[in-house]
Every structure is written in C-alpha cells, then in structure tokens.
Write a structure and sequence with these properties.
The structure is a homodimer.
Chain A lengths: L8 H21 L5 H12 L5 H8 L3 H13 L3 E5 L5 E5 L1 H24 L2 H15 L1
Antiparallel strand pairs in A: 1-2
The structure holds a DNA duplex.
Chain lengths: 136, 136
DNA sequence: TATTGTTATACTCTATAACTATA
DNA sequence: TATAGTTATAGAGTATAACAATA
C-alpha cells in the first residue's frame, strides 16, 4: 500500500506525539495522575506559591480548566492553597505531594530516557532543539 | 519563573504537535476539512479503491469513526464508493475531490514548508527521522 | 479596568460495545 | 471464524461565556 504521508513532518509529529503521550499516560495510570496533573505539580514544586492563573498561562491551560484539576490534586492531598491577597491563592506541594512527585519523576525520567533511546544516535541531540523551535 | 519542563523532550513534543496541528487546522478551515479528512483523502488518492477498514488500520482510525468521516466526504461530493464484493466497498476520489485535494495540497505544502522553516538549519534534516523513530 | 477564581456548558476527538451481513 | 460496515454511546480533553470579588 502506498503511503502518501511518509514524508510529512507534520503528520509524523502528530503520530509521534500521540504514541509517546499514550505511553506516558499508561505509566501515570498507576499514580492516578494525568499528564496535565504532573506538569502542574512540577510547576508548583519549581515555583512555590505560584497562582493557578500563572500556571495556566505558562502551560497553556485555561483558567476554567485549572479548577477541577487543582481540586482533584488538593483532595488527593498533593497540594495546598494559601491566600496571597483577597483574590489570589498561592499553591504549594504538601509533604506527601513532594514525596509522590519524586516517585512520579522516576517514572517520567524512565519515560524520557526510553523516548530518547528510540531515536538513533545521530539524530538524538537534534530532537529537542528542533521541537522547541516549533513552539517556544 | 522557573520552567521545570524546559528539558523535557516529551513535553516539547506534545506542545510542538499541538502548536503545529492548531496552525494546520486553521489553514484547513477555509476548505471545511479537518486533518483526518485530508489524510483519508490522500490515502484514497494514493490507493484507489481502498476500503474504509484498510484506511483505518493505516492511519490508526477506528472503523466506527470512519463512518461519519466518509459520510461527510461523500455528501460533500469529494469521494465515491463502489462495491467490491458483498461486504466491502472501494473508495475513490471524485473529479471534484481530486481538484479540491490539489488545492488543499498547496496549503499543506505551504504548511510543511513553514514548519521546516521554523527549525534551524543544523537540526532540520534530523526532525523527520527522529520523529519517525518514535512511532513507525 | 483588569485580574482571579469559579460555575456551567458545549464541542471535538476518540474509544467501546454490539449488531448484520458477508468472506 | 474473521472481517466490513454500521449504530449508538461514553469518555477525555479543551474551549467559551458569564459571574462575583478584588487588585
């Protein structure tokens, strides 16, 4: 069968993303976390007392969609909120959240290593810079 | 603000895909076609009388989801169906479909060129092989 | 006036299960 | 028995609009 999409960078970009995100989602199942949850937790860990709106701007997540996400993280005991002023609240990881994220990060690191291992040596170092050029 | 996702190939892969697919979707709006529609039309053009199931297997689209997609393409006059045997039907582009796809392909080509143009010279040639290694 | 957090809702895309008719 | 096409439905994930309270 002829494959008219064989030389399309756009199509391969999409398929590669779907394949890798599917694999990552599988790895995160054991933690009852989705990819967005983890990226938000990482943002909070790296920027204590950050607000939900600031995370949303950084990760391109609508403010409205942050609400149920943060609610779930809080109910799971992973994050806590502390008022900054009358309308903003700073987010932090709980001790449990930090410990849990450490475990998750081990899984993420294995995923990242596995991803890069799939790429032939001569192309590996070019992947991240090329991808970053497409959106950053 | 610290960005803990700066060195993540997985995250950049996802963001790059979202950014590029968003741009492509915008370009296809004028044709009232989605990305899946175009990839299916390309498969039909390159493999006349292919079946819906075969396209689904090649593009990783569930058979069930091919039904409304093909229905729309047929109602738009872009494709036609001809019975192969009692249970299979071969798909073909209509003359209008071929002409329309030629127009769409010009847009796609511009999109692909624009995508590659975003990537610095020294990384450009590595993008497609690296992406293909992640899913093909 | 702009921003934060929030609620409610709609839309797109994809997945699943079941059914029929035929190979 | 396996496959093609189909129907109906469910679930993520994301987007939009509006609101109250505060900066």
């Amino acid at each position: 069968m002829r494959d008219p999409l064989k030389d399309s960078a756009g199509y391969s970009l999409r398929r590669a993303s779907i394949a890798m995100m599917g694999e990552l989602a599988q790895r995160l199942l054991a933690f009852d976390l989705r990819m967005a949850d983890v990226s938000v937790m990482m943002m909070i860990e790296a920027n204590a007392r950050i607000t939900a709106s600031a995370i949303g701007r950084a990760l391109d997540i609508q403010r409205a969609n942050m609400v149920p996400l943060l609610k779930k993280l809080e109910e799971s005991g992973l994050i806590s909120r502390a008022p900054i002023d009358g309308k903003s609240q700073g987010l932090s990881l709980t001790e449990y959240g930090k410990a849990r994220l450490a475990q998750v990060r081990a899984e993420i690191d294995a995923f990242e290593a596995g991803l890069l291992a799939k790429v032939p040596d001569e192309h590996r170092g070019h992947l991240l810079p090329a991808l970053d050029a497409l959106w950053r």
